[in-house]
Known about the structure:
Elements: E1 28-32, E2 35-39, E3 54-57, E4 60-63, E5 65-70, E6 76-82, E7 88-94, E8 98-100, E9 103-106, E10 111-120, E11 123-132, E12 138-147, E13 151-152, H1 153-156, E14 166-167, E15 171-173, E16 176-182, E17 188-195, E18 201-203, E19 206-213, E20 218-230, H2 242-258, E21 262-265, H3 268-284, E22 285-286, E23 293-294, H4 306-316, H5 321-333, E24 353-354, H6 358-361, E25 369-370, H7 376-391, H8 394-413, E26 456-457, H9 458-478, H10 483-501, E27 502-503, E28 508-509, E29 512-513, H11 526-533, H12 538-548, H13 581-593, H14 597-612, H15 645-648, H16 650-659, E30 661-664, E31 669-673, E32 683-691, E33 694-701, E34 708-715, E35 719-723
Helix pairs in contact: 2-3, 4-5, 4-7, 4-16, 5-7, 7-8, 7-9, 8-9, 9-10, 9-11, 11-13, 13-14, 13-16, 14-16
Amino acid sequence: xxxxxxxxxxxxxxxxxxxxxxxxxxxxxxxxxxxxxxxxxxxxxxxxxxxxxxxxxxxxxxxxxxxxxxxxxxxxxxxxxxxxxxxxxxxxxxxxxxxxxxxxxxxxxxxxxxxxxxxxxxxxxxxxxxxxxxxxxxxxxxxxxxxxxxxxxxxxxxxxxxxxxxxxxxxxxxxxxxxxxxxxxxxxxxxxxxxxxxxxxxxxxxxxxxxxxxxxxxxxxxxxxxxxxxxxxxxxxxxxxxxxxxxxxxxxxxxxxxxxxxxxxxxxxxxxxxxxxxxxxxxxxxxxxxxxxxxxxxxxxxxxxxxxxxxxxxxxxxxxxxxxxxxxxxxxxxxxxxxxxxxxxxxxxxxxxxxxxxxxxxxxxxxxxxxxxxxxxxxxxxxxxxxxxxxxxxxxxxxxxxxxxxxxxxxxxxxxxxxxxxxxxxxxxxxxxxxxxxxxxxxxxxxxxxxxxxxxxxxxxxxxxxxxxxxxxxxxxxxxxxxxxxxxxxxxxxxxxxxxxxxxxxxxxxxxxxxxxxxxxxxxxxxxxxxxxxxxxxxxxxxxxxxxxxxxxxxxxxxxxxxxxxxxxxxxxxxxxxxxxxxxxxxxxxxxxxxxxxxxxxxxxxxxxxxxxxxxxxxxxxxxxxxxxxxxxxxxxxxxxxxxxxxxxxxxxxxxxxxxxxxxxxxxxxxxxxxxxxxxxxxxxxxxxxxxxxxxxxxxxxxxxxxxxxxxxxxxxxxxxxxx
Length: 724
């Protein structure tokens, strides 16, 4: 077992090195299950070192190189796309000019080439089609250059290893080229490249096919790259045929999309943002035996993250509660069961992260099954309670009640002497900061010094407050426990919180309290989460909202994680001045909770404007916090995940917040409180909004002071209430 190099450790944290920056233009992404592929627009995986191009499966990159050559040179790119549901990547190419000395022997644009890729459960299917549009026969040689490096995902993030397993030389076996790697974890990994029925010439690092195309002639070739892990318990295998695999992926994506109501508007660009977001959520959804789960993001977080899944569920709960159900069931199945300081595990605690790669299995990183987050556990309880109110699903409530009890017991037993839920890592290799801002320098005082743990974050106390009230609701619904006692605990926490965290001179809540109980007197976006959970005092809500919308916080594209006035502000940092879409969506929900749908609509506008400036209308994990007046589009953060689940989900919570939308399944009631549509959105229609067994079709129209709600269809017992 090898130890991690200091190169990845920055301030006792895990860090994405600049060496991993993508430098080859636009990346196209395919994702399915535990696999993802990142290619150039030409459909290539270029030999890339630490750039994240290639085909990865179960935490390991199998395909390091996969490049096409046509008559010895790279073909010319015409266009490229990924289908709307993310199931297939298509590149349109043509041949380059071919010369022999001064003679032009083949003119460019003679042969049209189409590359189609589909990914399913660790298998990449590619078809190559060539058509000769010339007037004379064309001698065509297709060559595929390939390699397998079996790099762990943490190596791609910049980590160096002192020792690796054994990689065997590639072998040609009939119509296949097989490369094997025996990991230090005792697992055999193989890349099996299989070429179709045509007369490919196979070498250990190249496959070539030569055909003579008559005028108007075609050739179609197929290649399959299988990523094999033995043993990997519970792994799914892809169908053998490409068309069967592609149909299975498309069916999964369609099922996810069908869980949302049909949402259309008078603004085509907004509809495109909605469609892209819905597709990204379907793309990141992992089907599993204990419920479907939204993986956090590609490439760095293509696995289960407790916090990310829970907040993504929160963001989509009003429109697609099935997402929350899957997240809750999967996390209940992985809930902490014992005391294990090396994993930061404790009974009742909710998982932070689950990894399947070699380095995690060998303990080179602690994230194989890691519980080092302070907020996932209260978020689990709060989301379960919110899910039950949204759906009236008592069957699920009963099934998950033991997990909620265990989680709440961990919460209450872990409160510090001040009565707050704080964190202090239990293993030196774990995360130093364990809230959603988990980089090493994210929690600081106004002079820039880092807070000393144990640290009590402001938003975490809000999550605990919501969890305590949630336990009261659940116990009443199930006739179990003492609801009054839970509510009394919540009131006591709120009173302490308002007293200890309020910064009257700044009009907001302190980011955190350090080990000595000193408040971190910086203005941070975390305070907006306190509005969303309800722990904030009503008399403070308007001040917090106004403070977060001041120019040193709101950059025009959204609210920054940290205000410009803070000593550690840096618009290019991960957590100290950047803009995160999910963070802004939660803040918008906080505005709406306190009756300020207009400000929620303003945040929705900022993120909508950002989406219009980004490729495919796809919001990334985060972007830099530079002022909008300095840049006519959001400045990219170099190693942000795209797609990212909670970024994709943000549009749905932003829309819910602007509409002041809440759904009470027990009362069969849909309520709009001071609904507001931004100036660029004249009307929106929701068709098929489900409330228990009823369905609603609604039209919302922008007015001078508030939006008007019209019921245009109803099937079943459900009421609509509009509060002006």
